[in-house]
Amino acid sequence: MSSTAGQVIKCRAAVSWEAGKPLTIEEVEVAPPQAMEVRIKVLFTSLCHTDVYFWEAKGQKPMFPRIFGHEAAGIVESVGEGVTDLVPGDHVLPVFTGECKECAHCLSSDSNMCSLLRINTDRGVMLADGQSRFSINGQPIYHFLGTSTFSEYTVVHSGCVAKINPLAPLDKVCILSCGFCTGFGATVNVAKPPKGSAVAIFGLGAVGLSAAEGARVSGASRIIGVDINPNRFEEAKNFGVNEFVNPKDYDRPVQEVIAEMTNGGVDRSVECTGNIDAMISAFECVHDGWGVAVLVGVPHKDAVFKTHPVNFLNERTLKGTFYGHYKPRTDLPGVVEKYLNKEIELEKFITHEVSFSDINKAFDYMLQGASLRCIIRMVD
Ligand code: APR
Ligand code: ZN
Hints:
Elements: E1 9-15, E2 24-30, E3 37-46, H1 49-56, E4 71-79, E5 91-94, H2 104-107, E6 134-136, E7 139-141, E8 153-157, E9 161-163, H3 170-173, H4 179-191, E10 198-202, H5 206-217, E11 222-226, H6 232-236, E12 243-245, H7 254-261, E13 268-271, H8 276-284, E14 292-295, H9 310-313, E15 317-320, H10 328-340, E16 350-355, H11 359-367, E17 373-377
Parallel strand pairs: 10-11, 10-13, 11-12, 13-14, 14-15, 16-17
Antiparallel strand pairs: 1-2, 2-6, 3-4, 3-8, 3-17, 4-5, 5-9, 6-7
Helix pairs in contact: 4-5
The structure holds adenosine-5-diphosphoribose and zinc ion (ZN).
């Protein structure tokens, strides 16, 4: 038992008080974990677009004060009642979506959409009692995605915690909590490009480049990067992307351009933009007979996918996926092993690093489009 188990911990957290305003480092009180929860000492966290999106609160219900953060790695400090597979000292990745191992989804080998612990962006409290574990002078602070990793200590449902090899460097594997696995898994688990195939990646942000890493690892020979921002092309070369298309350079649909480049279409495409037109292009640019397109980006709430049904009759397949089809507790330890075996590269995603007190710089880098991932060091 750690000396802090069962007690309230006072620690530093970056609190967001108002939409779009810089976070402030505050002393917060973190309550002990309740039934099926664990309290984690966060060592490294990184910033993802999803944090920024909810921090800006454009179009969603604002929920403040809130502690953001969901890509992270840390060590279990203490566990609540009923937690049997985690102990203090375990190295873990908290994940924004969970795996209860009991619901119909968790029992199906085909699904990672756990009914109990699936992502819920509107919930700012813990499931056990509908309360927050964070407070400042008695004022509750909302959680974010059940993870809230912009805090030196956080409380997470044990079903949202993947226990990993303690030899893994936490300042690298923290990016597996969200962005990397979302793109990489979309390719290797869902698109499954055969060796030597041609793969189009729409959107060359961190998610798209992770999808490209999946194509590289799968042995794809042509990896075609599609982006309306040509500034992304140079960096993408480090991720195995070897051909580039900017839809803005053409006065016809980009799917036609890609079909010409590839003698009828790519074998696989992965869409990582969130843009509905890119989603339609990603589908229509795959080869008839065998092409598979996978949608990853989060679309605008009013978006409608429109394509001619003949595209399906001609044996093109359209799929969508969530978190790279990974079950967090079951599958993440294996992804960590792949990194330790040097089968996948994570370093190239980490373009910046800041100390916790400089967390607002991580937001600036992302808003300027300068960073893929900025690691935030919680311990100096
Ligand atoms: N065609 C091609 N590329 C596009 C288009 C389009 N119509 N629209 C946007 N893009 C490009 C952008 O220029 C950018 O380079 O898609 C890229 C998206 O990258 P980021 O904004 O860095 O986003 P990322 O973090 O990689 O996430 C991508 O996945 O998880 C979701 O919500 C996330 O929808 C987003 C997507
Ligand atoms: Zn479940």
